[in-house]
Each structure stands twice: as C-alpha cells, then as structure tokens.
Design a protein that fits this description.
about 200 residues; alpha+beta; 60s Ribosomal Protein L30, Chain: A; five-stranded mixed sheet
Length: about 200
C-alpha cells in the first residue's frame, strides 16, 4: 500500500498535519536510504503529539508498542529519525510559517469549530483539497529544515515481568512497581494513596 494510503488509513482522515508527517516520513526514508522498520532498526523521537505522528507510525513503522517511538512533549513539529543500521540520524523541523496562509488559517478555524453547517463542511472539504495539493507538491525545503545530528540510540525494548499490585490487584510491569509498606504497588495506587 502506498505511504499516503497507509497514513490516511491509520489516522482515519486526511488533514494538513497528517500530510506534513507524510512528507517527513518519505523524506527520512529517502535521505537515510532506509526501509520502514521491522524490529527496531529505526528510532523516531517526536516533539509533538499532533496528527503528523500518525504518519510516522504508519509509514516508518516506529510505534509506542515496539518502543521505538519516543515522545517528548515540547509542542514542536520536530521529528528525529535515526537508523541503527546506518548509524545516522536526521532532525527535521517544520519551518515556522511554512504551512501558513489564508487557506490554512480558515481550515484551522473550521477544524476547531464544533458542528459545521453544510456550507462550512463543503468549504472545509474544498480547503483540504487545496492544502493537499500545496503541501504534497511544495519543495521540501519550503516546509522543513533538517540536519544530520549525533544520536545516542536507546536500548532496544525489553519484555518485563508482570506482577500483581498489592493495592488494586491489577497487573503492573515489575520495573514500574514501587516497594512500599503495603508491598509492591503500581504508580496509580501510589498517586492515589500518596505512597502509603
């Protein structure tokens, strides 16, 4: 399945943020000379939790479940894609103002609005088409800045034992349990009981 279709299927709809993530993922594949991840050959650090991250997961194969998608809550459209096999990493940052313009602003207004009228829904659909053409055909350097960086690869994900929390009785990863006077408890019980 082509990358665009993979990303749309994964995300559930098409939007400007997803398109930006698609551009990042496709650029990283080409620039690093890599294929999508199978077993943690790639690591991606994302500095946002926006729509573009879904494209990273769908196209690059870096996911939270495999442990090779690392989220840093910085609120920045910045993606670092690293290849263990190549020993290389790219930091790709969306240019400020790279996705600006009246169409983008109006799309954002409509997307944030609760219920759209039929006319507004049609306008949003039309804007999606306009933005799709613009974002997918723009030269990459008009939208993003990138540079190769030194990168310290994290250890590959490990499988840990599950133990029973002495507080709630639910299973918790052993390395996340905290030893208390009540026994080993999960982080949720630790927060709720103040560690007692």
């Amino acid at each position: 399945m082509p990358p665009l279709e993979l990303a749309i299927q994964f995300h559930g709809h098409i939007c400007p943020g997803l398109l930006m993530g698609i551009r990042v993922a496709e650029f990283a594949l080409k620039e690093l000379g890599i294929s999508p991840d199978v077993d943690e050959e790639l690591v991606t650090v994302v500095e946002t939790n926006s729509c573009g991250v879904d494209a990273i997961q769908a196209i690059l194969g870096c996911t939270f479940g495999k442990g090779n998608l690392i989220y840093k809550d910085y609120g920045k459209n910045v993606y670092t894609v690293a290849s263990r096999d190549k020993g290389r990493a790219l930091r790709i940052a969306q240019k400020f103002g790279g996705n600006r313009g009246p169409e983008s602003q109006r799309f954002r207004e409509l997307a944030q609005k609760g219920n759209l009228t039929a006319d507004e829904a049609a306008e949003k659909e039309n804007l999606t088409g306009i933005l799709f053409e613009r974002l997918m055909s723009a030269p990459f350097e008009d939208l993003f800045e990138w540079r190769e960086i030194d990168f310290v690869f994290p250890e590959k994900a490990k499988i840990h034992a599950t133990i029973q929390c002495a507080g709630c009785g639910e299973g918790v990863m052993d390395i996340r349990a905290v030893d208390t006077a009540r026994g080993l408890i999960c982080p949720t019980c630790l927060e709720e009981k103040g560690g007692q």
